[in-house]
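User: Quick sanity check before I run a bigger batch. Here is a single chain. Can you write out its predicted 3D structure?
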Amino acid sequence: MSAITSPFRNTYRYLQRQAHENPVIFYSVVIGAIGPVMAVVIPPIRENMGYKHAEMIPATYPVPNRPRRPTVGYEDS
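Assistant: Done. Predicted structure follows.
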């Protein structure tokens, strides 16, 4: 039975030692591993809680529905 759990126990001990000896690297790896998981898990949770996506920002300026008038008073002399 202990042969089955030995790799997990050794991995836990290794991670615990790294957390004490190199905490910056250890926690950087932990946060980096959580990122992709959150990208998959968070959007469905937000939709279940009632989040609605924002409207798209207009990509063009709306042209007025009238004839164009030439500008007056800005001619070069």
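Residues 23-50 form one domain.

User: Great, the batch can go ahead then.
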